[in-house]
Write a structure and sequence with these properties.
With 290 residues, the chain is mainly α. It contains eleven helices and seven strands.
């Protein structure tokens, strides 16, 4: 199975813009219609005002004999939506058919009003095998990779899937009875789809999270309850109150006593740092010292 890319399909349609069967190449390449469905299409099956196309018959060949009947499967009975560009192409094709009919009447040439969309010079429906032969000639002239006419149907399904159509929509468009056939056969993976899938997979689904700062991470951790502080042992302090001479009794000086040296009491009336004063010694103290 060979499938054209979107650029190759556009190049082909641009090269065959003046071909009398341009409407066939357009509908096969963009709407994915089968060759038999296109050859059996009639103007009564198309509503250009509403932009719809109904598939009701299939025109194909069995050897050299043309066989026309119902669609390939029950799901082949379907209605296909037409875009604005497709409606414009079909309107231009119908005007061209009417001009050929008027020209045949003016020149006295035979014309058969068959009601088919794709006709020969005399108005009769074309042979399905002629479309295959004509398609090969046009590909050779355009210089494109060779593909089959039926491959345009594969390409239409693949490009529609690339544009965002889901498999259920493709199943209804192509007229398949099973969605498995649509998924396995008519959705060839194109390079653009693979690249888009790779980009979508590598793209992060959300904003990237920066690694937390060590201090912030530590501050965000649950704080454990701090242990109760150990009781502090208070040192006992001994205070001596000494009355300074010449000062009021309200101002006292506290002196810390050393633990290894017993505190000594100064004689009354004598400051411990003054040596110019002669201490007053009582009799009882002198006798005790002696």
């Amino acid at each position: 199975m060979a499938v054209w890319t979107a650029n190759q399909r556009a190049e082909f349609l641009s090269a065959v813009n003046d071909d009398p069967l341009f409407a066939l190449w357009w509908l096969a390449g963009l709407r994915g219609l089968r060759r038999g469905e296109l050859c059996g299409l009639r103007w009564s099956d198309i509503d250009l005002d509403r932009g719809t196309l109904t598939i009701e018959r299939n025109r194909t060949t069995a050897g050299y004999q043309i066989v026309e009947g119902e669609p390939k499967t029950r799901a082949g009975w379907r209605s296909v939506a037409l875009d604005k560009r497709s409606v414009q192409i079909l309107r231009a094709h119908r005007r061209h058919e009417q001009d050929r009919k008027a020209e045949a009447a003016d020149n006295g040439l035979p014309w058969t009003d068959s009601g088919y969309v794709l006709t020969r010079r005399d108005g009769k429906p074309i042979n399905p095998n002629y479309t295959t032969t004509r398609f090969r000639i046009l590909i050779r002239r355009a210089g494109l990779p060779p593909v089959r006419l039926h491959d345009l149907r594969h390409g239409a399904a693949s490009l529609a899937h690339e544009a965002g159509a889901n498999l259920k929509t493709l199943q209804d468009l192509l007229g398949h009875s099973s969605i498995v056939v649509t998924a396995d056969t008519y959705t060839s993976v194109l390079p653009q789809i693979q690249r888009r899938c790779a980009d979508a997979t590598a793209r992060p689904t959300g904003p990237q999270r920066r690694p937390p700062h060590p201090q912030r991470a530590q501050s965000q951790r649950p704080q454990e309850p701090a242990p109760p502080p150990a009781p502090r042992r208070r040192r006992r302090r001994s205070q001596r109150w000494v009355l300074l001479p010449g000062r009021s009794a309200s101002r006292l000086q506290s002196r810390r006593s050393r633990p290894d040296k017993p505190a000594t009491r100064s004689p009354p009336g004598l400051h411990p740092h003054r040596t110019d004063v002669t201490p007053t010694i009582h009799a009882g103290q002198t006798a005790r010292r002696a």
